[in-house]
Specification:
Elements: H1 2-38, H2 48-58, E1 68-72, H3 73-99, H4 103-118, H5 132-136, E2 148-154, E3 159-164, E4 167-172, H6 179-185, E5 196-200, E6 206-210, E7 226-229, H7 239-242, H8 249-262, E8 270-273
Parallel strand pairs: 3-7
Antiparallel strand pairs: 1-2, 2-8, 3-4, 5-6, 5-7
Length: 276
């Protein structure tokens, strides 16, 4: 039995290493082709892809593209404004939950509100993939550098951040980690009566996943991911109990808070570059 397991493990490691080699070769070919094309680029036509190439050539260590990001100028004011708006909406829900003595929701959302306020002076990103590998597949869509506030990359973190009924906390990430592992690592009430959660990947993608017994979806988590529970709304069975007197606020939080979290940097130790 052990021999079978060892063989399976060795085989898995072989295919994982093979996949890394293929990705490295593809990335090398992409960078080589883009470098040749960038020689003919006029300064006024320089794009974020050109800037990434220059940054790459100056780095002594490889860049983790899965944790790379950039901020486009239109998002520079939009994202902080959206965060402040949701902070106010959460205040309304906190009061609503307090009125009926729903202390679990009141305390949890108060912690969400405090966490959003603490991000006031933190750097943000555009919630989309703007790394070199993504831009290389659509060079014509690469934003002009004049429309970019900055670009950067974070060291791969060792956590997964959870916005649940326990408040806002981080669980230690480990290989092959899933949402189920996060649920086991946190207090039982963190996901009580919750059917769906939003997974925010380090690349800024937002995925709605089923986490209850009836709609369970096995979902792996990358380091630096964020997990946000979906609040019960007026269409849910708990809508009349969780937030009485509110109709739109839970929907607004469910629709917009994932995007605000996707605009946060995918790590704590990050390096940024600005156009000269």
């Amino acid at each position: 039995m052990r021999t079978t397991i060892d063989r399976a493990t060795t085989r898995a490691h072989f295919f994982y290493a093979k996949r890394l080699v293929i990705k490295a070769l593809l990335a090398g070919a992409l960078v080589s082709g883009m470098t040749q094309a960038s020689h003919a680029t006029e300064p006024s036509e320089r794009t974020l892809a050109d800037a990434w190439l220059e940054t790459l050539s100056q780095q002594a260590t490889p860049i983790s593209w899965s944790h790379a990001y950039a901020l486009l100028l239109p998002d520079q004011q939009r994202q902080p404004q959206q965060r402040r708006y949701l902070t106010e909406e959460l205040g309304t829900l906190v009061i609503s939950a307090q009125v009926t003595g729903n202390t679990i929701y009141a305390q949890a959302l108060l912690k969400w509100q405090e966490a959003l306020r603490s991000l006031e002076n933190e750097a943000v990103r555009s919630p989309q993939r703007l790394d070199l590998l993504a831009l290389g597949t659509h060079l014509r869509e690469a934003p002009l550098l004049g429309n970019v506030a900055y670009w950067g990359v974070c060291d791969i973190p060792d956590w997964v951040e959870v916005w649940g009924l326990q408040g806002v906390s981080r669980a230690a990430w480990r290989p092959n980690m899933t949402i189920d592992d996060v649920k086991k690592a946190l207090p039982e009430h963190a996901f009580k009566n919750v059917d769906h959660a939003y997974l925010i990947t380090p690349q800024g993608n937002v995925l709605r996943r089923g986490i209850a017994a009836w709609n369970h979806e096995a979902t792996p988590l990358a380091p630096g991911s964020r997990l946000l529970i979906e609040l019960p709304n007026r269409q849910g069975l708990m809508g009349a109990f969780a937030f009485p007197g509110t109709t739109e606020e839970p929907d607004i939080i469910n629709q917009r808070l994932p995007g605000v979290l996707a605009a946060q940097l995918p790590g704590d130790q990050c390096t940024q570059w600005h156009a000269p």
